[in-house]
Design goal:
Structural class: mainly alpha
Order of helices and strands: HHHHHHHHHHHHHHHHHHHHHHH
Distance between the termini: 29 Å
Oligomer: single chain
Radius of gyration: 24 Å
Length: about 500
Amino acid sequence: MERIQRIVQASVLYRVLFALCLWFGRQWQGSGIIQWFIHPPLHRERTESDSSVFTRLWRRVHRGLCRVYEALHLQNLFDCGAFARLRLRWGSSVFLKTWLWAGAAAVLAPILPTMAVLGLALIAAFSLLLQIMDRRDFELFYTPFNRYIWLYAAIYLVGTLFSVTLSGSLLGGVLTVAFILFALVLENAITTQRQLDTLLMLLVMAGTAVSLYGICQYLFGWGYQSEAWVDSDMFSDITFRVTATLENPNMLGQYLILAISLGGAELLSAKTWGKRVFYLCCCGLMCVCMLLTFARGAWLGLLFAGLVFVLFLQPRLLLLSPLLLVGLYFVLPDTVIARFTSIGDLSDQSTSYRVYIWMGTLAMLRDYWLCGIGPGDAAFNLVYPRYSYSGVTAPHSHNLFLQIVCDAGIVALVIFLLLLFHFFRDLCAAFCREKDSYSRLHQTAITAGMAGFLVQAMTDYSFYNYRVLFLFWVFIALGGLVARRSQMLEGRKQG
C-alpha cells in the first residue's frame, strides 16, 4: 500500500492536481466574499430580532398565554389522576415532552401515512404551546432563516387562498403550511445534545428500515409498478423500480439522499467497532436501495452530496474521484451504467417528457408569474393544459423551483431562495468555528444532503409526496440544531 502511495505521489499528474488544489484552497480562504459568507453578523441580527416589532408582539402574546394558563389552573390538570402518574414516571407531564412527539413525527414520517404524520406533528405543536404557557421564561430558538420560514408559510397560505380552484388547493395548501411550520416546532422541541444525537441515530435507523423493505420489495416483486416510470424500449432490462413506503421511486431516492448523508456522518463519528459495522451495514443497505430505485436524478443528487461531503472534510480525496468513477464502471451492473449514462439523452421518453413539461410550464408562468395559480394537482391541471407543449400532460412541473412559482408566485421563490441562502450560510459558519468532530460531521452531512436534495429537485417536484416535503423541513430544523449543538446542554455523544 505504501509503495502504491509513493508511486501515485511521484506522478506528474498527482503533483499538478495537488498544486492546483493548494492554489484553489488559498484563493478560497483569501476571498472576501467567502469570508463574508462564513462570518455572518450573528450578534447584530440577534439584536435586531430582539428589538423588532414581531418580537415585542410575541412577548406580549406569550405573557397573555401564561396568564390564561394560570387563570384556567391547567397546571392542576397535569397533577391529578393518570396525568400525575405519567408525571411521576417521566419527571413532568408526557404532554410537555415536546421532543418525544416531535421526534416521533420526524422518525416515523417515511413509514406512517401522511395524516398520521400530521397528527403527530399537531400533538408536538400542542405540546410546545403548553410548554410556552407553562413557563414564563420560555424563549423561542432564534436562527437567521426562521423569519423566512414564517414568510414562506404565510405567502404559501395566501397563494392557497387565492388559488384558481380553492376547493382543489385548500387541503394540500394547509397541509404544506402545517409541515413548513413544523420546522419551528422541532427546533424548539430539541433542547439537549442527547436528544439531538438520539434523533439523528433514529433517523438513520428509519432510513435503513425503509431501505430493507425496498430491497425485499425488489426481491419478491411487491408493490405497484407504473409503465410511465421507465422507457421500456430504451431500458428493457429494467422491469421493477423500488418505491418502498414512499409510493414513487423518485420520491424514495429523494429521501435516501438525506438519509444516506446522515448515515455517513454516523459511520465516521462512531467510536467503537460494533457501531462502525452497524452503521456501515445501514449505509450499505440504503445505497443498494438507492440503486434499485433506478432514479437517475437521485443518483446524481447523491453523487453531488458525496462531493460536498468530501469537499468539506478532506478536499484532497477529490483527487481520487476519477479512479473511483473508473472503479464503479467495473463494479456496477450494466443496467445501472446504461441508466446513468442516459442522463440528458432526449431520445429517452422520460427526459423528453420533462423538457416538454418545463417548456409548457414556462409558457404558463409568463401569464401567472406574479401570484401563481395555487398549489395542488387540481390547480395545475386546470390551467396547464392550455399551455402544454406537444400535448404533454402532467400533474406538476417536474421541477421544484418552477412549481413553487406555480403554487404561490415569484415572491415565494425569492423567499425560498433566501431561506436556503441563510440555511447554508448558518451551517457553513458553524462548521468553520466548530471544534467538536461529531458536530462538524453532522453539519457537513446535513449541508451535503440538502445540496444533493436540491440537485434532484431540478429534475422532479420533490414536494409532490407530502412526507418528503415534511422531511425536507425536518432537515431544515436539523440544520439549525446541529449548528448550535455545542451550545446545548449535555455534551455526551451517541457515537
